[in-house]
């Protein structure tokens, strides 16, 4: 991370990759909010757009052009929309763009906070704002998404395919340590380690053992071990018993969509793909996909992207501005300016305008 100073003001260089579906709509909304935030702060942003998408893939045969990753490395952070289009198989688009950035840039910690925002409702009868406030830490570099495996005898009755999960002590340990550090910084200081170590008796047992070893260095963090199937029940039935949660690439991917839905909508939750060593820029994106069923209609919920932008601003070292953005976003939700997925009738632009107006208003008070 290397913000450069211009006339005494820090300027952060942000690579924007809006990509597919509602990606361009929510990233445009996010950039507008970030520009407004910078107008009332003592730092600036310099945005550079990358037109990497399924459309450009179909034209030139690759999502990331030659030298593209090197070009990304010159930025302080990456703001990503979503990838996925009906014209390209999902495994090509995901591996061609999103995973092709996360894995080589060693963004090994995927951080997914979720909470019930003010003014919104959880589908859970007894859960209200404050009852569900979690951070899911997802392993983002290996595991079930390591890309190991293959297919042979295609189309034959004896066709064979393998999808091999890879768990290395190095990667599991660094991620679990990161999860403990995250739990330690939160008021509850509570970590739930999720595995499936009854059925998966190798990699998952190693996860449990490493969690126990690393936990010895964090005596102030309470740890609970839970199987992933039991975890789904816990999330639905006792949301306030959970706080920080750590799980594998696949398990946490699924649990975090459930978490977002339990908080009210997949449209509100953020994701940070972090390289905690800060050797490479980290990448920030809303948790949702390209939602092509609503693309181009101007109704996508931009709140997940605003929260994402706040997490990016926090990672860049601007804590107060990040808190301000979250507070403005929550005020707007609390005032009932909500998109359809949250039971409201506002469109993307109306929510964006309301958040920008709130940022300006709060800066004067
Ligand atoms: N990180 C990523 O880029 C990412 C993540 C998930 C899925 N995908 C891709 O996105 C495409 C669609 O996947 P999907 O349908 O499984 O998931 P999705 O998240 O795109 O959509 C699921 C449902 O949630 C709704 N939704 C999502 N975001 C919303 C928002 N901001 N506001 C309002 N409603 C919203 C959609 O309309 C849809 O009904 C696929 O190609 C998939 O591979 C990409």
TrEMBL record:
Residues 13-355 form the Isopropylmalate dehydrogenase-like domain. The keyword Disulfide bond does not apply. Belongs to the isocitrate and isopropylmalate dehydrogenases family. Transmembrane segments: none annotated. Its cofactor is Mg(2+); Mn(2+). PROSITE patterns: IDH_IMDH (PS00470). Keywords: Magnesium, Manganese, Metal-binding, NAD, Oxidoreductase. Its EC number is 1.1.1.83. SMART domains: Iso_dh. This is D-malate dehydrogenase (decarboxylating). It comes from Saxophila tyrrhenica. InterPro entries: ICDH/IPMDH, IsoCit/isopropylmalate_DH_CS, IsoPropMal-DH-like_dom, TTC_DH. It catalyses: (R)-malate + NAD(+) = pyruvate + CO2 + NADH. GO terms for molecular function: D-malate dehydrogenase (decarboxylating) (NAD+) activity; magnesium ion binding; NAD binding. Signal peptide: none annotated.
